[in-house]
Every structure is written in structure tokens, then in C-alpha cells.
Amino acid sequence: MVSAPEIVLQGVTKRYSSGALALKDISLAVERGEFVTLLGPSGCGKSTLLRLVSGLSTATGGSILVNGMTAENARELMSFIFQDPTLMPWRTVEQNVGLSLELEHAARALRAERVAAMLELVGLTHVAKRYPRELSGGMKMRASIARALVSRPRILLLDEPFAALDEMTRERMNEELLRLHGEQKWTVLFVTHSVSEAVFLSQRIVILGAHPGRIAHDITVDLPWPRTAALRDSQAYEQAVTRVSRLLRGAQHA
Amino acid sequence: MSRRAWVVVNSLALLLLLLGIWQAVVSLNHVPAYLLPGPKAVAVAIRDRFPSLVSSLWITTEEAAGGLAASIVTGVAIAMIFAQWRWLRQLVYPYTILLQTVPIVAITPLIINWMGPGMLAVGVVTFIICLAPIIANATQGLISVDENLIHLFVMHKATPGQILFKLRLPNSLPNLFTGIRISAGISVVGGITGELFAGSPRVGEGGLGYAIIYANNQMETSYMFALVLAATVLGFCFFFLVMFLEWLALHNWHESKRAGMSE
Is B22 within the bounds of a domain? Predict the structure, then answer.
């Protein structure tokens, strides 16, 4: 049996209430467990596209199916990670991470166990009782990732999650994200404007053009797995970055 | 001696100096006590009339605290309703500003006409002037929530109640305390204003405002000074109590309470 793709977009169009056309005729299929990056200049609607898939906003045309359901009905399968860590400052790290379990009234013992396991996985056990203001930028982002993963999503939607971090932290977070993906095999839609990040993380890169947002290129990244920090020194990686950069520039001026 | 202790000693010395100048001006010029009593005469009045001073202070404390507490409960409830229904907020919110602009001195006699003199009427006057800052600040805190946090709650199928109590309400605490601090300061003013009009059901017994009028009529200016001092101290205590509660609620997590972290 051939399983259907996890996320299917067909002819998706989004027009803002102001009348501006944000996305035009987007068709895209993402396989189960695939890591797909949406790459594009600002204003190409990549974040809008992510919001449509999450069901936070509705398309004005075309159809979106997530695991065979409408985006809104498939919310339970998805977790969203924002550009800012968006932790609640009045909650400790573990209280922030346990939010989704708390909202669905999971038993206290189960909650504590899953939160502890998650903190262990992202290396935040030692700051479980701390408040967000005491954490570094990278630690906050890790807490945000832990919060998204604790509900055991099948699909992870990330909207430029590492854009505000410094280069070193960002690279380390990229490596950790891939390690977690290797263990948990979620389907990923990742939005970024960093070419190197896109190449390092993705199996596939979808390059969007702007005004209106549309798919300009759909590229498979043929770099070996598992990917580690050493990959960044390889010639194949550099060539891939160069190629994607060129396509991105082309999409911008088309 | 630590820096802080030094500052305290200096402040006290300044206070003593000012009291000394005041006493000297009164004594040297033989100013009669009914016009301007010296600090010594005020101290004597406090000592001689201590029981009735404390009794007046306590009555005003009850009225101001009662009015303030009622305004916090009502104000937060109204703000929650405003936060839940935007159309209602836009419809009604402008009118809550009237609460702030209405001249309280002018409507106090009306309230006393309707409710009769006494502590309840004074509590209502306090309630009215305390309400607007609570509503304004609590509403601001409830609606200024990070949009992404709301999205997060929605993604995890949170109920409106969960969004209100687990997200909006804790988010509003810093603003709410700003409102309570403002209202705590004016609650004592409200109580005394009410008492100036409300009088007292029993002759000679009443809150600070009533006692101030009474002392003025009797030309007991030294006692009047003592009463004004008591009212000032009361407002001060309210303010610091709220500051302390604010610190208790926020010091763990809020940026404004960050001081001392590096020590």
C-alpha cells in the first residue's frame, strides 16, 4: 500500500482582506517524515503558507489536506514553533513546556513524566524550575521546541525559529533539530530566509517567488545522512548552497 | 555604615531640621495655636486625643479599604467582559472614562441623599473614584497578549475559559497592579471626601474627614494637623501594602522586578 502524502496543497490561493494577493496557485505535497523548507525573499508569503497549513488562517481558494483532514481538524497532529520563543514569563520552564498537556487535562503524573523526558531530550533539565527571563536566547528556543514536541506531534511547523539567534547558536540548534527529527520522524515544514540553514536541514527546498507568492523551484537536496557539523566543511554542501542561492536570486528578480 | 543607612540617617536629620525651623518660627513669633500650631502642640494633641484619633483612622481605613476592594473585584470583572467581547468594549469603554472625569465632590452629596449618611455611602464614593483606573489598566493587560501565544493556545484547542484564566489574566497582572497602586492612593482621598459630606450618625464620632470638619469648627487646629497627618500616613500605608503585594506576585518573573538579581 502506498501511503498518501501527509500534507497536500492544491491550487491554494490567499487574498488578504485588503485585496492584496499573498499566495497564488500553490500546489505542494509533503511525504510523511519529510523535512521540507520553504525558502524565499520577505513578502513571498512563506509564513502565510505555514499559517494556512496550521489552520490558524483560511485559504481563499484551493484545498489543503493534512493527514486526509482539513487543517483545522488536524490541529491535534501539529505543533507550531514561532520565530520568538513566546514563552509565558510567569511560568517556569517546566510549566511552559507542559502547557499543551495541561490544556488537555492530562493526569499530573503523566504530565510530569513527559515534561521531564522532554527537558532531558533538549538538555534543559538543570533549568526546569527557572523562569524564562533567566535563560539565554538558545535555551529559550530549546524550551519552545520542547513545548512543541511534548504533545507528540506528527507534523512540526516552524516559522523562522532560529532567525533571532547568533550564528553559532543557530548552527548548534540546526544540528539538534536534525537529531530530534532522526529520533521522532515528524513531518516538517520549515520556513527560513537563510540558504545555508535550508540546505543543511532539508531533504527538499521549495523556493518561493514574491508578488504574489508562488512556487518558483522545488529542489531535492542530495546530501548524505546523517548530517553533522562536519557537513558544513564539505564541497558538496558549498556547491548546494551556491546553487540554491542562485535560484533564490533568480526567483527574486523573475 | 552602609550607604543605605547613611541615606536614612540623612533623611531623618533633614526631617528634624524642618520640624525645628517650624517650631522656631511659631515660638519666636508667638503665633497663636489656632492659626498655626507648632510640631510640639501637634504632638501633644496626638497624645491627648489618641483614642479618638485611632478610632477615626480606623473608620476611614475600613471605608477606603472596602471601597478599594469592591472596585478591584468589580473592575477586574468588567475588564474580563471587555476582553472577551471587543464590540462590547468599543461600545461601553468610552463611558468608563466618565467615571474618571465626573467631579466626585459634586456627586458625593447626591450619593449621600440617596443612601443616607454613614460608612456605606462613603465606601460607595471611594468605590466610584477607584473604579476607572482599575478598569482601564486591567483591560489593557488582558488585551495586550502576544498574538502568537493566543495562536499557541488555539492550536492546542484551549477553551475560551483557559485562554482567559491561563493566559490573559496572568498577562494582565503587571498592568492590574499599576491600576491598584493608583486607586490605593486615591481611595483614602475618596474616603475623606465622602466623610466631609456624610458627617456621622453619632455626634463626635466619625472618620478622619468628619473629625477634620469637627476639629475645624471647634478651632482645634492642633488636632486638625494630627488628623491630616494620620490621613497622609494612611495613604502611604495603602500604597506600600500594594507595592508589597505587587512584589510578591511579580518578583519571580517580571522584568520590572529584576533589581537585585545581579547582587
Answer: no
State whether residue B164 is helix, strand or coil: helix
Q: What predicted TM-score, i.e. pTM, was given to this entire model?
A: 0.84
Residue B148 lies in a domain: yes
In a domain, B8, yes or no: no
**Which residues from A are below 8 Å from B171, CB to CB?**
88, 90
Give the nearest partner residue to A133 out of B154, B156, B253, using CB atoms.
B253
Kindly list the domain boundaries of chain A, sorted by start residue: 7-85+154-253
Q: Say if CB B230 and CB B52 are below 8 A apart.
A: no
Contacts of B254 (CB under 8 A, 6+ apart): A89, A90, B173, B174
Q: Does A84 touch chain B (CB under 8 A)?
A: yes
What residues have CB less than 8 Å from A212, skipping those under 6 apart?
A21, A22, A23, A24, A45
Nearest residue in B to A78, CA atom: B155
The Cα of B149 is separated from the nearest Cα of chain A by a number of Å equal to 6
CB A63 within 8 A of CB A10: yes
User: Per the structure, how many domains does chain B have?
Assistant: 1
Using an 8 Å CB-CB cutoff, list chain B residues near A89: 253-255
State how far residue B236 is from chain A, nearest Cα, in angstroms.
29
Q: Touching check for A73 and chain B: CB below 8 Å?
A: no
Complex prediction ipTM: 0.87
Is B156 in contact with A78 (Cβ distance < 8 A)?
no
Tens digits of pLDDT across chain B (263 residues)? 688 899 999 999 999 999 999 999 999 999 888 889 999 999 999 999 999 999 999 999 999 999 999 999 999 999 999 998 889 999 988 888 888 788 888 888 898 889 888 888 899 999 999 999 999 999 999 999 999 999 999 988 899 999 999 999 999 999 999 999 999 989 999 999 888 887 666 655 788 999 999 898 888 899 999 999 999 999 999 999 999 999 999 988 887 766 544 43
- Whole-number CA gyration radius for chain B: 23
The CATH number that domain A7-85+154-253 falls under is 3.40.50.300
In a domain, B178, yes or no: yes
Counting one residue from chain A and one from chain B, the pairs whose CB atoms sit within 8 A come to: 57
